[in-house]
Specification:
CATH topology of the largest domain: D-amino Acid Aminotransferase, Chain A, domain 1
Shape: globular
Oligomer: single chain
Strand order of the largest sheet: 13-12-9-10-11-14-21-19
Strand content: 25-35%
CATH class of the largest domain: Alpha Beta
Structural class: alpha+beta
Radius of gyration: 21 Å
Number of strands: 22
Number of helices: 16
């Protein structure tokens, strides 16, 4: 096992990793920007190193400074969390060259699955269904011809995109060039790569992802699915496990495809395979693979009775998956709400600032993952998520009632949050019945307009 792990991230995921390290009797090193000097992960780590100014590009995205911090503190491994450098193949490669263990898959696998066009080709080669699409196309005129061949509507997607950036749905030829350019420019600005490809747009689909995990000892597992269809502008708002949509037969087919894919690429560590499922829940299509831990991993942990961050660290240290993970079986239902510092009634405008009062809900089956506390100031430089509220119960019906109760208990004063909007969703008959898809929030917001 490692002696010391550097956490190359911030916020709740950094704190989550530090806690896992402590329970494994592993020391932790936090890195932080000037804006995060008062963050809880800095206070609870065994050691902390400032790596730059507030902007992510000047701190958490500075691979050389993170490596220097690891060397100075004699860390023998780095956990990247999610976002920032977590899917950066070059960073994983640098870690290896510096004899520091990257807690994640190899740089080769990150490259192979991080490039969406290559990932689609890999899925096809291994019999995993995909939507009709194209390879990378740089010429807009050529892209239009391919869109005509695929048939409108199409989704224009940046090969290096993520988090909803570099994606544009296009329903007819009239808007194609404008949308193609917008997707490419957005991806170039966010990821330094403006290459795009096309996919057939599946109307009213559901977004289902499977948690996968594999070790160095020949164990390749899937740990069930998460339904992430409740989203706004490709940003997830509420996730749940298991999905209320999937039939046992469809679940089994998707699980088999997921395990087949990670075996074929020799995957190691935790990852997520994302699919679109049609509105009749009969067909599924590979969308992409995230070669890292996901924001919504707690719902899987609660239902499967495992601790994924600990398993990531154990795998990277050369240990096999824990016996309870190898023999885990789903139990109950779990729902997660992402609590964001945003004003849902002002076009979800960011709401940074000082938190005058922070009171988190509790009680049976309630979990709150956060780095926030009373007196903490939410900085304007990063993602707006400030907490994850996770509830678990024996049934979905009880879990929904528990989430309603927990959201009602949550007290956050000084900033606006998404809690009132999530309360609206939890009370809506469509959510209660499980009758929602990735376009539901957009339609709901349109209906609310005066």
């Amino acid at each position: 096992m490692f002696k010391r792990v550097l956490v190359a991230n911030r916020g709740e995921i950094a704190l989550r990793i530090i806690r896992a390290c402590r329970e494994l009797d592993v020391e932790s090193v936090a890195v932080y920007s000037e804006a995060d000097v008062d963050s809880m992960h800095v206070q609870l780590a065994d050691e902390a190193v400032c790596i730059g100014k507030a902007a992510g590009k000047d701190s958490y995205l500075k691979a050389d400074r993170i490596i220097a911090a690891a060397e100075i503190t004699e860390a023998d491994a780095i956990h990247p969390g999610y976002g920032f450098l977590s899917e950066n193949a070059r960073f994983a490669e640098i870690c290896q060259s510096c004899n520091i263990r990257f807690i994640g898959p190899s740089s080769e696998v990150i490259t192979r699955m991080g490039d969406k066009a290559t990932a689609r080709a890999t899925a096809v080669a291994n019999g995993v269904p995909i939507t009709p699409g194209s390879d990378i196309i740089t010429d807009p005129a050529e892209a239009l011809e391919k869109a005509r061949e695929i048939g409108f509507p199409v989704m224009i997607k940046a090969t290096a995109g993520g988090g909803g950036r570099g994606m544009r749905p296009c329903f007819d030829e009239a808007d194609f060039f404008k949308l193609f350019e917008a997707a490419s420019n957005e991806a170039e600005a966010a990821f330094g790569n403006g290459d795009c490809y096309l996919e057939k747009l599946v109307l009213n689909p559901h977004h289902i992802e499977f948690q996968v995990i594999a070790d160095q000892h020949g164990n390749f597992l899937q740990l069930g699915e998460r339904d992430c269809s409740m989203q706004r502008r490709n940003q997830k708002i509420i996730e749940e496990c298991p999905s209320p949509l999937l039939t046992p037969e469809l679940r089994a087919r998707m699980a088999e495809a997921s395990v087949s894919l990670i075996k074929a690429i020799g995957y190691e560590n935790a990852g997520t395979i994302e699919y679109l499922v049609d509105d009749k829940a009969e067909n599924f299509y590979f969308m992409e693979m995230n070669t890292r831990i996901q924001v919504e991993h707690p719902v899987t942990e609660e239902v499967m009775g495992c601790e994924l961050i600990k398993e990531q660290i154990r795998i990277a240290a050369g240990q096999p998956l824990s016996d309870h993970v190898l023999h885990s079986q789903p139990r109950g239902h779990s729902i997660e709400c992402r609590i964001n510092a945003e004003d849902p009634y002002n076009n979800f405008a960011p709401s940074p600032g000082n938190i005058d009062l922070w009171y988190a809900p509790g009680g049976k089956g309630v979990r709150v993952d956060t780095h926030v506390y009373s007196g903490y100031s939410v900085p304007p430089h990063y993602d707006s998520m400030i907490a994850k509220l996770i509830v678990t119960a024996a049934t979905r019906e009880i879990a929904i009632a528990r989430m309603k109760r927990a959201l009602g208990e949550f007290m956050i004063r000084g900033i606006k949050t998404t809690i009132p909007f999530q309360q609206e969703i939890l009370h809506h008959p469509d959510f209660v019945s499980g009758n929602y898809d990735i376009g539901w929030v957009t339609r709901f917001l349109e209906q609310k307009k005066p």
